[in-house]
Specification:
476 residues; alpha+beta; Arc Repressor Mutant, subunit A; 3 domains; 4-stranded mixed β-sheet; two-stranded antiparallel ribbon; flat
């Protein structure tokens, strides 16, 4: 048979615009979501504000101070408390940063509400939730420190190895292994060493059945530099693809973010947060609902009815805007469902934390939550990024429900946050004339069944801005 070129017509659906919109809405904070919706209503005549239908909030649900979501969820998420607990819920005006009779968490409530999250904070948080050896954790910390604000690792691996000396002596292969773990973090594409690797990481993070994903990977790996000059026809000829496949691959590549790190760090330090959901207890059950309001989005029925009577050009325009409006409403609903699913899981896992405070916070990772709710880890990370919950213990970031763990002598695990709370309590109860040293604190924790090293105690103490023992001596 003689080789010959053959063209064929076909249709292939590339979902990148819708997928990008869904992921974009999921990672927005409540204030950013309000701005996004306002812009959409202003630019799309088929979208309109509709007053609430008067549906009642779930029983016992307190009113959030500044709602951000469209409508409260009616289905409660519950986890039974231990017998004998008070079945009532406290009114909102009695809720504080340490409400519910728990220990003070040591954080200024205003500082907690206004703290901004940088890319390095986001990566460090994910790093400490990953099960790594102490040496790999130090390597990972060095890698995260070397990642710039755009999300790229500009420092060569040899330079990172030198920076770890003399405390840690490792080769480039070991550093590359930890780097590959970090490259799986959110946002997709972070930790890349060049644009080609950044785009390839984002493509690998997409579902395997994403249309044109395989072709887009070939474009990134084989023709990225020549892509602007080749065009669709040249790309199809060079890679042996059909015109439709080449166009779909090019569209998918163009939808990727060449600066993944720029997604984070946009909030200013004086920005107040609005709770995305409300967590309360009613009749001995912990419940959760999205923070609601009396205003929601709807389709503008007047413009929708004009489609049947408008001219062909006007009808085509209105149908396009109608499809955009429907996609937005669908993605807003999916965002709320995903957020509520994750929050309900957090309630089931951390009901002790909600009731008794930090000392009852159990170790919890993104992987555990993702496995329970049936989502990908990066989706869970996006769902909790810059999201807050109004709880009896104050307005808390959803990420505060996660903590790394340390093995105990009883075979279980204690979260790092709970250990910090134990250290703070021991220091608060110490004799001011003879403060406890880090070694004595470590011995006391070990006697309680939590074996931690003295240097670990020192690290936690410094993280809580507590001075050393010789600086805490008070004679009065």
């Amino acid at each position: 048979m003689k080789p010959r070129l053959q063209t064929s017509l076909g249709q292939q659906l590339v979902l990148t615009p819708q997928l990008r919109q869904a992921l974009h809405l999921l990672q927005l904070s409540s204030l950013e979501l309000e701005q996004e919706i306002a812009i959409a209503v202003e630019s799309n005549p088929l979208l309109d504000w509709a007053e609430g239908d008067g549906a009642e909030a779930p029983e016992g649900m307190p009113e959030p101070p500044a709602p951000a979501e469209a409508a409260p969820a009616e289905e409660p998420a519950a986890e039974a408390d231990a017998p004998g607990l008070d079945d009532g819920w406290e009114p909102p005006d009695t809720w504080g940063a340490t409400g519910g009779g728990g220990e003070d968490d040591g954080l200024d409530p205003m500082d907690r509400l206004t703290r901004t999250e940088s890319l390095h904070d986001h990566l460090s948080w994910q790093l400490h939730l990953t099960r790594l050896s102490p040496q790999d954790l130090r390597i990972g910390t060095a890698i995260v420190d070397a990642i710039d604000d755009d999300g790229y690792l500009r420092e060569p691996l040899a330079g990172i190895a030198e920076a770890l000396l003399p405390d840690v002596r490792v080769g480039e292969d070991e550093i590359a292994t930890v780097l590959h773990q970090i490259q799986r973090f959110d946002p997709p594409g972070v930790g890349a060493r060049d644009l080609r690797e950044c785009l390839a990481l984002q493509l690998h993070a997409l579902p395997a059945d994403t249309p044109c994903r395989a072709q887009a990977l070939r474009v990134v790996e084989e023709a990225l530099e020549r892509l602007p000059k080749l065009g669709v026809d040249g790309l199809a000829a060079e890679l042996g693809l059909s015109a439709d496949a080449a166009a779909g691959a090019m569209q998918l590549v163009r939808s990727l973010d060449p600066r993944p790190g720029s997604q984070l760090g946009g909030m200013s330090a004086d920005t107040y947060v609005t709770p995305d959901c409300v967590i309360w207890r009613h009749n001995g059950m912990w419940r959760a609902a999205l923070a609601g309001s009396n205003t929601r989005l709807t389709i503008h029925r007047g413009y929708e009815g004009m489609i049947q009577h408008a001219s062909s050009s006007d009808a085509s325009y209105l149908r396009g805007r109608l499809q955009e409006a429907r996609w937005l409403l669908k993605h807003l609903e999916a965002r709320g469902d995903t957020l509520l699913k994750v929050v309900r899981c957090l309630i089931r896992q951390q009901s002790g934390f909600l009731e008794f405070g930090e000392q009852a916070l159990r170790p919890l990772t993104l992987r555990e939550v993702a496995a329970e709710v049936g989502l990908h880890e990066s989706t869970v990370s996006r769902a909790i990024s810059r999201k807050y919950a109004m709880t009896p213990r104050g307005t808390l970031a959803l990420r505060s429900f996660f903590a790394s763990g340390i093995g105990t002598e009883g075979g279980g695990e204690a979260s790092s946050t709970a250990i910090q709370s134990m250290i703070r309590r021991l220091i608060d109860e110490e004799n001011p004339r003879k403060p406890l040293s880090d070694a004595k604190l470590a011995d006391t924790l070990k006697a309680s069944g939590v074996p931690v090293a003295r240097r670990t105690v020192a690290k936690y103490r410094e993280a809580m801005n507590i001075p050393a023992s010789h600086e805490r001596v008070r004679m009065a």
